[in-house]
Structures are given as C-alpha cells and as structure tokens.
Amino acid sequence: MAVNNKSAETLKLAKVLDLNEASNLHGTLISLRGKDVAIDASGVERVGVQCVQVLLAAANAWERDSKSLVIDKVSDAFRKTMQLIGINIDHLLAKEIRQ
Amino acid sequence: MDMNEIKEIFFQECEEQLAELESGLLKLNDGDRDPETVNAVFRAVHSIKGGAGAFGLDDLVSFAHVFETTLDCVRSNKLEPSQDVLKVMLKSADVLADLVTAARDGGGVDEGRSRGLVKELEALARGELPSGGASDAPKPQAKPAPAPAAVAPTAAPAPTDDSGFQPIPFTFDEFGDEEATIAPSSFEVIFKPRRELYSKGNEAALLLRDLSRVGEMSINCDIDSLPLFEKMDPEAAYFSWTINVKTTKSEQDIRSVFEFAEWDCDLDVRLAESTDEDLPMIPVPFDLDFLNDDSAEDESAVENHSSEQAAAVAAAETASNVSKLAAAAARVEKKESQSAAAAAAAAASANAANAAAGAGQTIRVDLDRVDRLINLVGELVINQAMLSQSVIENDTTGTSSINMGLEELQQLTREIQDSVMAIRAQPVKPVFQRMSRIVREVADMVGKSIRLITEGENTEVDKTVIDKLAEPLTHMIRNAVDHGIETPEKREAAGKNPEGTVKLTAKHRSGRILIELQDDGAGINRERVRQKAIDNDLIPADANLTDEEIDNLIFMPGFSTADKISDISGRGVGMDVVKRSIQALGGRISISSRPGQGSTFTMSLPLTLAVLDGMVVTVAGQTLVVPLTAIVETLQPEAASIHSFGANQRLISIRNSFCPLVDVGRILNFRSMQANPVEGVALLVESEGGGQRALMVDAIQGQRQVVIKSLEANYTHVPGIAAATILGDGRVALILDVDAVVAASRGQSLRGDGALKSDMSLAATG
C-alpha cells in the first residue's frame, strides 16, 4: 500500500474505543472518505470490538477507493487487543512500526 | 436518570422476575419438563442476582447465587426436579422474594430460614436428597463469601469484572463434573455475539480476555460478514470467533466466562475432536493485564447499565432497535446457512428478535398519570352528556348534522372511556401467585399437604380491585387450608387423596369478575355452625334455618368455629371482615358447601371502581343513583300487598313472602312524612345480611352508566350516600349506599344522632 504521510489526514483515536465511540468513529471516517488517512492509535487504552469493526470496514473501503489508510502509531493496548480478538492488522500498520 | 430511579426499576423488574420464577417452578411442580421452563426459572434468578450485584445488595446476591447454582444442576439434568426438590425451590423463591422486599423497604428477613435453605440448596447441588443430612452439610464453599470485593460498586451486566462476584469457577468443581479431567483437553468455542450483547454493555474483547485465562487459547476471527463501510451499522455485531482452548478445566468453566452474556450471543462449546479445521488461528499467549483498567471499566459499566435501563423504559427506542436487530439477524442467517448449527442459531436469532419485539410493546407508566387521564375522561363523558342535553333542549328543530355529530361524539367518548379503563385493567395473576405462597406456608404450619390450582389468572380487572382483593382472598385461603381441608389422615380415612386441593378461579361474567375459591375438604359442619351461632347469641335456639342460611352464618360478625385460636385463622374476625371488604368493593360473596366434598366461595366483583351502572331514581324531588348490582328487581306496589307492621313499619308481600318496605326519602330525611307506596316504585335490593328489602322511591328515571366522584374527597362523608356523580344536565346526583340505608331501616341510625344534616339535600340539588 502506498503511503504518503505528508498529505494524509491524521486521525487520532480516542482513549476509549467503546460502544459509544463506534458511531463517532464511523462518522469521522465517513467525513475523511476519499482522503489518505493516517491513524494514530497511540493514545488508545481500551478497544471495543465494534470500533474494530468500523476500522476494518473502513480499511476495506479505502482499499477499494485506492486510497491509503495506515495506522502509524499504536499503543500496546491497541496492538494486544487486536491480537486477543484475532484480528491481524499487520497490513495496516505503517512499515516503520511493524514487528 | 439518577441511581434511585434505576434502583426502583430494578425492583419493579424483580417483581416480574419473581412472578416468572414462581410460575415456572409451579409448572415444573406440575410435571412440566420443558427445558425452556427451566431456563426461564434460571434466568429469573440470574437476572435478580445480576441486578442485585450492581446495587451491592450482598445478601440478595449470595442467596440468589446458591439458588442459581442448584437451578443450574436442574438445567444440566444433574438434578431431577422431583416434588421434594421443588418444595425446597419454592421455599427458596419465597425467601428470595423476602430478600428483595427487605432490600427495597429495609427491614430484615428470617435469617435462620434463609440459612437453612442455603444448606438445603447446596445439598441438592451436591446431589443429596432434600431430607438426607442437609443439616450437617459442611460449610459451603459455594456460598460466595461477602468478600469486601463484592461491595465494590460494579455493574453486574459487565461479566468480566474482577471486582464483582466471580464465584462460578469453584462452584462447579464441587459437583464432580465428569468433564473435569486432569489431562488438558482441547475445546472448540464458537462465539457469535449479537447486537444486544454490546448494547447491554458487554464487550466481546473482555469476554475473550477472560476466556484466555481459562487456558491456552488460539483464536480466529470471522470478519466475512462485515458489510460495506457505508452500509454498516457501527453498533451492530458482525464479528464472530472460533476459539481453541487447551485447558485442564471443564466445559462449565468455559461456559461460565460467558455467563452474563449467554442470552445475547450464540455460543457453542464442545470438545475439539480434531483440529483439522484449516482456520488460521492466532495464538493468544501474552499477559493481558493491560486490560484490567478497572476504574474505567466500572465507570463505563455503570453508564452502560443505566443506558440499558433507559432502553427498557424507552419503548420507542426499543422499537427502532428491533428493526435493526431483525436486519442483523437476517444477515446472520444468510451467513450461516452452510453449517449444520446454522438452523438452530438462526432460529435463536429470530426468537431474540421476537422477544425484543414483544418486550417493546409495554411501557411503564406512573399510576398517577393514568388516574389523571381517567379522571379527565370522566369529565369528558360528563361534558359530552351535558352538551348533548343542552343541544336537545335548545334546538328543537333537530338539525340532523348536529345530532349526528353529537352521536358520534358520544360513541367516541364511550370508546375512549373503555380504552382508558382498559389501561388500568390488570390480570389477577400477581394476587393469585401470592396465594400459592400462602397455601404453601399455612399448609406447612398445620402439617397438611395441599395443592393450589389456579385458573384464569389472566382475567383482567381494575388495579384498585386487585389491590384490595389480596387481603380478603388471603383470609379465605387461610381459612380453606386451616379449616376447610382435613388432615391427611382424616382424608385417607374418608377415602380421599391425602393431598388436598384448593382451586382458585377467575372469570368474567356479564361485566363483572367472578372469583371462586373451592376446596375439596370436609365442607361446612352445619351442626357445629348452628350450635356456635346459638352459643354466640347470633340466632335464637329454635330458629328454623335452611342449609344455605346456616352456611351463610359464617359471615356473621363474631363468628368462629375454630376450637382453638391459632396463628393462622380463627380469631373470629375472619369471614365477616372478608365479606365487608368484598362489599366495600361493590362485590358480593356467597358460599355453597357439600358435606364431605368441600366448600365453594364465590365472589362477584365489579370490573372497575371508576364507573358504575346505576338506576337513576327520584326521591322527594332529589335525583339519586342506586347501584344496579344491588337491585334484584323493581316492582309497582299494589295497595293490597302493603301491610302495616308495628307503629310505623310496613311490609310488602311479594310472591307470598313479606319484605320490609323502606322509604328512602324518610331515611335520608328528604321528607318528614311517609310517602304513599302505591304512588312510588319499590326496588327490591339484597343487602349485607343477605336479606331482602324493598326500597321505596318516587319514580325511576332510567338506567345509566355514571362516573363515580368521591364525596369524601370533594366534600365530606355523608351517611347513607356512597359517592356522587354528575348527570348529563350538569346536576350532581348522589349514589345511594344501599347497605347503610338498609341498616338504618333496621333501626340503626345512619349517624350517632340519628338525623342527617339538612345540607345534604342541598348538595343533591347541585
């Protein structure tokens, strides 16, 4: 996936990505549609499945649009929760933070 | 919504759950072995426990927990729900109800009783029979010690909360679970959350975290059902998981992780036969302590809890959710059609959708609001009547369009009135259910074995009637159990089933509700009743009474046949009090008894206390309303049938029997001279004592449904008058208190000084 961090919009995710946040996140991402987006998940302390659903659906949409959506910073909690719930986000992670 | 309101809702829900619990247990007692019944019972206790945990009601939680554990054994077919087992469970349901009441209203419960039951329940859970050695059961581990942690303000629906009660894992170990083996076994868990799981504040990630603690876990998340980004519902559930858990623990331990969520997800746990599934599993090996952000969790849990409660109240919201839910369910259905389990799962989702739709159809409304509405509709009815009357009076040309409009208005108002009354109508079920507890307790106390059969619990009647029905019914049930049914020995000697039967039925009959209480006991001992009545100076020793009249003696004040005064009944305040309360409700009670076969009490009650069918009559220029229920017949007296009796008493002969003639105008002091009976109409009424009286009025205006207005609330109590109403012409009419008038005619004065205030007649002219 081509990454052009310079022109990408940065979306900093909220600390708590729970049920209430899912709709917000969905709305925010809709407003960013068509733009390259860099997601900053460094401040995330808690991740709920519904926000992950939104993020993955967005990733699919961005891919169809041939736009880039990368997660360029992740917190430990974010990364581990993804692993816990069995979601592979490696392909979304910016190269420099891949493990 | 503040905490107290939420708590109030919790207690309201508890009432419903308790009712559900009891009816479920009774069904089981009758031999119902439908797993859904067991589930419903389990769910009821479970919900009470969950809510109680949220409010830190530790006593309630710990008792509910033990109860639930035992119920779970029934649910998993480890415990056969025999009569003995159910006896313990029904008692436990009673204690649970007491605990709920104590938690709500303060006050204590019978600790000894609840402790004893806890032991019995635990014994049952271990597979011991109720009678065998329940008392010396070892101190239970299953009882969740009210550890300080349990006091933490945590919301129960958050299942994963460490600070809440998490007693299950060690509870089930006790049962010697077959599946609990030392060698680690591999389980396959298929977990499909439904939308409700999230909307109730549960979080799949946290459930998975807890699951990962059970053993070594690898996971595959199925994201195929994720819809297009623009079409997705951010709050729906799209992901599902297949999880492999390698653990030394049992299937139960795995299931208990999902304990609070199991109604909101499809869960399948089974021993993995082979791992031939080529799903790419991600191992979950690491330490997950980072997720234990308890403070944040608690906060959001409480928040979610309140939003859940709010959702319960907001019917509109629920309704909108239902459609989304149905859509989600449809998606699930499509997705799963490949697998064998699909059909069941889809049916479950459909059921959930149905259940949600059903739940969306009720709202809780403050009773005051309904009453205000009913009051306003009453005013509307009166106003409408006044309007049509004045139109008729002023517009003699009879413009048909106005008349037609008025007629439609009349129909509409009547319909509105009926619908509003229907809001207050409630099934008699809760009262009937309370009775089953009374039967159990009293039967226990007197050492009899009695079964209560109820019929027509869904018969609806005004809430006020229901509320006031409980007390007389309790009295009668106690009497039936204590006096009506014989001891098992006597029953056997008489060739009857040693277990007595009390049958409580409710049905609608011509605009009234008929409640029957039937026992299959010995029936009324007429000899003894008669002797007792003579001893108590209630009747003369040589009175010649029919069987029916003797039976009705038990309704006389100060009558009791119980040889010794017991705690249960027999203080001589029994049946006359019952009769008075029933009459205060505008009802009638009668008894029929057959020696050796039992007695039947029949109560007939009005469906509502807000309107009344009455006969509008004229007495000395005043308009009065006589309740139709009291009137047996009306007749035009003939001079030949009037007989003088004593100084100023008169009798009327009706079909060869004499009946005292009561001049209503004279009793109420509307006139000082006695009216001429031949010019008036006689209303034959049945009164308290069961005797008949002929009430004399000047003329009958007609029969009408009237809206009852309390005189006490608006003016003050007037002897001889039950209430008032407003007629179509805007005039106030008084509703006659037939019993008081009849009593006055017997020489008892309406009031101490015998005279009525003259302003009463002023009130009548309005």
- Order of strands in the sheet with most strands of chain B: 15-19-20-18-17-16
CATH superfamily of the largest domain in chain B: Histidine kinase-like ATPase, C-terminal domain
CATH architecture of the largest domain in chain B: 2-Layer Sandwich
Poorly predicted regions of chain A: 1-5
Number of helices in the DSSP assignment of chain B:
24
Q: Might you state the CATH topology name of the largest domain in chain B? A: Heat Shock Protein 90
Number of folding domains of chain A?
1
Low-confidence stretches of chain B: 132-181, 293-347, 350-359, 564-572, 751-766
Give the N-to-C terminal Cα separation of chain B: 46 Å
Total DSSP E strands of chain B: 23
Class from helix and strand fractions of chain B: alpha+beta
Give, in order, the helices and strands of chain A: EEHEEHEH
Report the C-alpha radius of gyration of chain A, rounded: 12 Å
The oligomeric state of the chains shown is: heterodimer
The shape of chain A, in one word, is: globular
| Rg of chain B, alpha carbons | 33 Å
Q: Please count the helical segments of chain A.
A: 3
